Structures are given as C-alpha cells and as structure tokens.
Amino acid sequence: MRPSRAAAVHATLAAVSVVMLMPFYWVLKTSLTGENIFQYPPALLPRAIHPFYYVDVWYYIPFVRYLINSVIVSIIVVGGNLVCNALAAYALTLRFRGKRAIIALLLSCMLIPFQATIIPAYLITKELHLLNSYLGLALPLCSTIVCIFVFKASFDAVPRSLIDAARIDGLAEWRIIRHVMLPLSTGAVATTVILSFIWSWNSFLWPLIVIRNPEMQTLPLGLSTFLSYMENTTGALYAFCIMVLVPGIGLFLLEQRRFIDGLTSGATKG
Amino acid sequence: MRYLWVAAALLLLIGGCNVWVALHDDGIVRGRVVLPDGQPAAGATVSFWEKTLTTLERRTATETGADGGFVLTGQPAHHFALQAEKSGLGASPRTLFRRYFRGQNLVLDEPLRLRPER
Q: Which sign, positive or negative, has the C-alpha torsion A248, A71, A141, A143?
C-alpha cells in the first residue's frame, strides 16, 4: 500500500474510531464532572473533575451486593457455556444421521428472539423451583447457539488424524474434548468466555422477571433501580454505568487477541 | 500469566486502599466558625446533616471553643452538610461537603461564616 493511501486509510479509521468512542467518552466525562448533558454549547473537555459520583454509587446503594450477584451468575454462565457448547460442538463435528437437520434447526432457532421464549423459560424455571436463585438466573444463558458454532468451527479445523490417534490410544470421547480439542481451540474458548460473560453481565429482562428479592438483583437491575432514585443526578448515574462496564471491558482487553482469533477461526480453509 | 498479574495488581491496590481507609476513618470533622468580620465565633452551635438519597437528616451537633474551632467525631456520612448558628449573631449557610470514603477524617479548608439574621 502506498504511504499516501495508508495515511488516508488510517485517517478514516481514526475518524470512525472517534465517532464510535465519543459516547463512551461522554459517559466517562459526565461521570467525573456531573455536567448537564443537555448543556449548550457542550464542553468537549471535562472541567472540575472529581470522583464523588463514584463514591455516591458505592454507598447509596448495595453496589457490592449487586456486583457479587453479577459475578456469581456470570461465572455459572461462563462455565455452563464452556461445558455445554464444547460438548454440543463436538457432537456436531461427528458424522451421524440427521446432522444437517440439527444444524439447520439450531441456525433457525437463532432467529427466534429471547423475548419470544421468555414465558416458557419462566415456566420451566418455576417448575424447577429455581426462581429467585443464581442458577435460575444463569440457566437460559448456559448454552448459546452462536458459541456452539464458534466451537464447531474451531473443532472442525483440528485434523481428524489427531482425533483418530487419540481414540486408538484409548481416550474416551470426553477426554478427547478435554485434552485434545479444547487445548487446540483457545481462540474459541476465549470467544465463548467473553461473549457469554458480556451477555450474562448485561442481561436485564430475564433477571427482572426471575428475581423477587432485592438482595438477589444483578448490576443492570440495580442500575434501573438507581435510575428511579437518582433521575436528576446524571453524574452518579453515569458513574454507575462506568462501574458496570469496566469488568466487561477489562475482560475483553485481556483476551482481545484470542477473541478475534476465535471469531475468525474456520472462516478460511487451508 | 496476564490474569495472575492483573489479579495480583488488583488485590494489591484494593488491599492498599483498605489499609489506608482503615487508618483514616474515624469520622472526624474539624473546622472553624467565624463572625461576619472574620473574628472567631466562640460558643456557636455547629449542626451535622447527613445527605441521604432524598433528603438531609440532622445527626449531631457540637459547640465551638474560644478560638471558634469545632470537632465532630464518629460521623461516617460521606456526603453531609454543616451549618453553624449563634443566637443574636445569625447562621452560616448550610454547606454540603463530600468525603472520598465513609468516616474519612476531614479538616475544612474554609471556615463557616456566620451571617447576620435578617
């Protein structure tokens, strides 16, 4: 690529990045200054920065309780996704009758929004006596079709000869997944961890329906409650938003390279 | 390995912060009250108001000494208001203060200034 063309591409990408990041910057700026977001003309740079809105969030509501609830649910969801999706994906790499139909069924199920299945999901959770519990919160997110296909794409890239060799050596199927497939699919694992963590972390509608006890609320529910208390205090509200966002962003930054690898694995042949 | 370093750094940071907080969370607020002309206001009553989500609630009060100084102890509120008053000499505006953590020991930069009653 010629230098002038490369510079133009970089300038375009930088401009797009600024546009994409501007809302996040604005939330961060407002959380540190408490400026009125409707102020005109808007101040681009923050003035009189202070962390007191974060202190307000920490003390006015049981933030730590919400955080612990979210962490517990996210751990269950991430663990469930790793186990269930890896098992399902491994099954889909094998040859059996009706495999294409099952894949078609799974793909078509991706078109159904969660809101459409929420009543049956609620009834099943109620029958299992899991309402108002961590497991009940995590259950609907414990396996996701997208992550099954991420694992499948990664498992398909593992040479068949390696799996055959493991079988000849006497490894059981689940040990092949554990000791052969998963170590060779770190990208898919990272992708599943990040996606399932973010979905669980940001989940709002399901916890809203399942949780009755305020002590079981997760961070998005806490944010909603907080909004009802603090509608005039944008600074504290935005500080809460930042505190909710930070763990997900941190996890993404730690695993971003593997995340990209996981999403693109199986996209090309050879 | 990255996770280990990040977790270790976070633990160190959180532990350090908690030690710092534990050493400075006696809930002491020190300050001075002055008359409109800047002279110390002896015997003025200083009220401590805790700011809750919706309102201000009066928690305690103390009196200033001969030098106009006052000390409030054991007040954990991180967001609070102070007001000084002395009969015949007026009252200061109820002023909001913030602390970085509950019970942080605080020395007021500016004295509370009494204003004559209208």
A: positive
